[in-house]
Amino acid sequence: MVKESQEQLEQEHLDKILKLIRQKERALDKSIDSAQSEAQNLNAHFFDDVKLDYDGYSTSMDTALSIHQQQQMLQERQNAWQHDTKQLSTLQRLEQKPYFARVDFKEKGEDKPETIYIGLGSFANNEDHFLIYDWRAPISSIYYDGKLGEVSYNAPDGEQTVEMTKKRQFLIEDGKIVNMFDTNEQIGDQMLLNVLNEKSSIQMKSIVTTIQREQNKIIRNTDADLLFVQGSAGSGKTSAIMQRVAYLLYRYRGNLNSSQVIMFSPNQLFNDYIKNVLPEMGEQNMVQMTYWQFASRRVPGMNVETLFEQFEDDHEDKDIVKLKDSLQFFNAITHYAKHLEKKGMLFKNIYFKSKDKPFYSKDKVKEIYYSFNENYHLRNRIEATKEALLNSLSHRVEPETKKAWVSKTIESLDQEELNKLYDHPDQEFESSAKEEHFLAKKIVIKQLKQVSRKINQNRFLNIRGQYLAFLRAVPKLIDLSKWNISQQQWEDHLERVKHRFIERRIKMADISAYLYLYDLVTGRRTDYEMRYAFIDEIQDYTPFQLAYLKYNFPRAKFTMLGDLNQAIFTKDESRTLLGQISKLFDSEKTEVVQLTKSYRSTKELTEFTKQILRQGEKIEAFDRQGPLPVFYKRDNLEKEYHALESILSENAEQDLTTAIITKTLAEAQAVARALKEQKVKATLIGSANQRLVPGTLVMPSYLAKGLEFDAVIAWEVSEDNYHSIDETQLLYTITSRAMYKLDLLYTGEKSELLDNLDPKTYRNK
Ligand SMILES: Nc1ncnc2c1ncn2[C@@H]1O[C@H](COP(=O)(O)OP(=O)(O)OP(=O)(O)O)[C@@H](O)[C@H]1O
Asked: Where does ATP bind (predicted)?
């Protein structure tokens, strides 16, 4: 009875708020309309109101001023219009679900509690009294953070403590409260269950209404220079950062815009998957790219090894790759570059007209480069060299005019081209010799622009040669025996890098080092504008890459998220990653947060998948029920396909979206082909540039990173396919993509990596 009347009261409150929202919407509609027609009017009569008067200096100043005023008026209208439009779109979002929570609290010394409602945006009445608080407002934090009783939150003027007396959650649909419950805990499990039971989709959802306490910490952290989040599969790392971006954009409104936030994600598919989360919260998307895009756009003339090649290649030179991925290697380059201030810089000849004799020989450039005193560092040295070369260019004009090519060029010009060379049509000269000389000079200056362009583009540097020279110097800088690398191995490796350069190819393990050396040598300015950098799936980055990213964004605060259990590319190295990263940041300004609860999958699935990891980070299951995973052992491939088809139709009956995840691309292609022959509809996702589509998908493991599906079918988990211990993490990543149902198929023997599973946690069929 009490509950019922409470519900009535809340419904009445909701009705009132909805009415106010609609009222405000109508008012905004009106003012947008009138601003629009006023702007049109202003535009149409722009020149009627502007005093056009062109005689005399002062009157034309008047004209300018008048135009300026008109423009300003237009601008103001425009601003008001933009402001109103933005507010209207917030209200339109609120109209569907005005709020999702209510909190009552008492400030110190007050007896009467205050009530606030929390929603996706804020809404105030005409007296500036907030009827709905944005979930990112300081006070809203208590909803996510605390139990009833004393709670603190960070207000603009320092920490505030209040007594929370009520916490209530609402499920609202079409203006009606469908369900509401009071809770004492963090965000009640009931609400979370409702949300988690929803089916997967090809777009990630926002978790605003059910952010968990630990996640809230990540979202609202503003102190750390490095926020490192270790979270098990499905613990909401990615969700938390999306909310964090929205939070930061709100908190620093006016000082931070979305172009100053960059996110590195595992692949393009994933970018597609998350692209709607921020717009749905009324924010613009940040800059998003993959590390590969970041690196390869800098070397347009070279082919950078792709994700596919990196994964499917046999990993040659494992020890060498390990060295190249390390911080030591990064430091070795820094050190090497320092030494280039004294000697060892390589140059290229600059040619002009003649291919035989350089216009500036590399020795000449080198002489200039090292002629400056020792206070010149690499950046100043290159600038000073450019300046000296450009200067000397002007002295080269005169001698060049006497060269044969010049008179030949003049002869070859037609009258029109020739006319263009004169300063004005009836230019006079004392003698024809002088005229010829004038023309020759014009021609030379014009043609020498090619040279000045080359100088400005640093074309006298030999960066590839320099990188090889650095590699040659490595044995002097690093004790290779400590990395299990012999002199001979290193030299052979060097030859391979050189060979690849000739073919304009570069490996992932070289590209960052190459770019870093390039930046140091050319004194390229790094990006001081970027304020926040997010790196998802950190376990797939090398310490070198992270150091290079930090070097690139010197003013950015970093948020790094990852699951050390899911390292696909870096495998065992990921274990020491945190140790290596922490060397890059001030330890006082580093915070590590652990997320251990897995929200993605049912309890059955989480309990099953976590056993695949022999050792590993802590993982807790969220209490949501579903079927046990099922193993299908079949005698041959044909029977395995039969099993696959029957699972697919079973899943379709239950309306589950399914991903068939294979180890390699070749397998995914084979499965997709086989299904097509049987007229079973499925989409092959073979490259990261494809789009995610609804329905059954077939994809290789490395493209499934970060994604989730109602049902996953792990294809061919046989001993033949998965046997090396470092493939454990791969199997874990594949199986942990499933939210509700998991089936594992194989022929022959089951992979040994799946041997030690408790038989109670799965079934065989
Ligand atoms: N607080 C929450 N409320 C509701 N759903 C949540 C919450 N936290 C996480 N989820 C859900 O759990 C699932 C997994 O989240 P997410 O993809 O962010 O995890 P992750 O840690 O990045 O996973 P992985 O490392 O395996 O890719 C998503 O469906 C997300 O919506």
From this structure: 231-238
